Amino acid sequence: MSGRPISGFALKGSTATRAIFVALFCALSALATAGAYAQNTAAPNFAPSGAMGWLKAGNGDEFLPPDAGPGPVMFDEHHDFGKNIMVTPGNNRPAKIADLANPILQPWAVEQMKKDNAEVLAGKVAFSARARCWPHGVPGFLLYPVHPIFFIQSAKEVVMTWGQDFQTRHVFLNLPHSAHPKPSWYGESVGHYENGDTLVVDTIGMNDKTFIDNFRTPHTDKLHVVERFTLSKDGQQLEAKVHVEDPGAFTTPWNAVTRYRVDTRPVEVPLHEMLCAENNDDHFHQNLVPIPQAVTPDF
Fold first, then answer.
1. For 127-137, what is the mean pLDDT?
2. Is 262:236 a contact under the CB 8 Å cutoff?
3. How far apart are the C-alpha atoms of 242 and 257, rounded to whole Å?
């Protein structure tokens, strides 16, 4: 009696023989599939020790452009005020402003950013989510300078946290997105590992209160960001490639890059407590956007 072809072979013999062959074939196929899956999804170790953090390497608090194609908003080279970060009474030069000639921007975004540029050129301090203790959102989270980012990895989740005031992102592994995630500051991030050295993070469900970058590039709640965090072979560098889509704010999808290096500075207490809000005074009287405060108790 001839059997049903399996992978190009026709089985012959008793029913018991065929059953044993099929069971063995399925078992071997499962092992092969599992082995391939494990090889492609092995988790790189982003935190060999609890004291190991990642510092942004180069380019200050801006994104780097991709090798080719549409890229992020960069600074306007015609108004490059160097590395000035903070305006003080003795240093009244404005910081860098955005290059609004970048064709990725929708007209309404250009108009909004023109007003921001004008304020900076007039000597005002550019609004900084970091300085005002506001969440940076995604992909702005990648632009934190000075203080390291820490990774906490488990079988089901990766947590990324910034060392200064515990801005935290949760990436849930090997799960699909919710059908209708409720908009939030950091959205809904799901991810998976690839090639033994890369974490891929897909984020949707963000509100429109954050900015893409430190030039205050706006976005809508349709923002979709895919990040690829790749660990170097020596474990000393981390590269994040970013893909951004938002037809409400951008004329085309675009890409950007940022890089980190291992924080080699002595760390006395990893992730020691540092609260932002209670220390956030307007020391230089620049009339910055104040931290929201409740007028009446909410409990």
1. 77
2. yes
3. 6
SS3 218: coil
- 94's tokens: 């404005």
DSSP track, 66-78: PSSS-----B-GG
Pairing of strands 224-231, 168-173: unpaired
As to burial, measured by CB atoms within 10 angstroms (0-12 exposed, 13-18 middle, 19+ buried), residue 88 is: exposed
Using the structure block, give the residue that is written with the tokens 């992909």.
Answer: 139
Distance from C-alpha of 46 to C-alpha of 263, rounded to nearest angstrom: 12
Q: Which CATH number fits domain 54-72+132-264+274-279: 2.60.120, 1.25.40, 1.10.260, 2.40.128?
A: 2.40.128
- Measure the CA–CA gap between 44 and 38, rounded to whole angstroms: 12
Q: What pLDDT does 40 receive? A: 47
In order, the DSSP letters of 170-193 are: EEEET-PPPSSPPPBSS-EEEEEE
Q: How is the chain split into domains, by residue range? A: 1-36, 54-72+132-264+274-279
Spatial distance between the Cα atoms of 210 and 162, rounded to a whole number of angstroms? 17
Residues 121-154 as b/e (b if ≥16 CB within 10 A, e otherwise) read eeebbbbbbbbebbbbbbbbbbbbeebbbbbebe
Look at residues 151, 122, 247, 137 and name the one whose alpha carbon lies nearest to residue 185: 137
**How far from the centroid of its chain's Cα atoms is residue 48's Cα?**
21
Cα 79 from Cα 116, distance rounded (Å): 14
The per-residue pLDDT for range 234-251, each reduced to its tens digit, is 989 999 999 999 999 999
- Tell me: the pLDDT tens digits for 165-176? 668 899 999 999
Q: What is the pTM of this model?
A: 0.75
CB-based contact 236:261 (threshold 8 Å): yes
pLDDT value of residue 127: 67
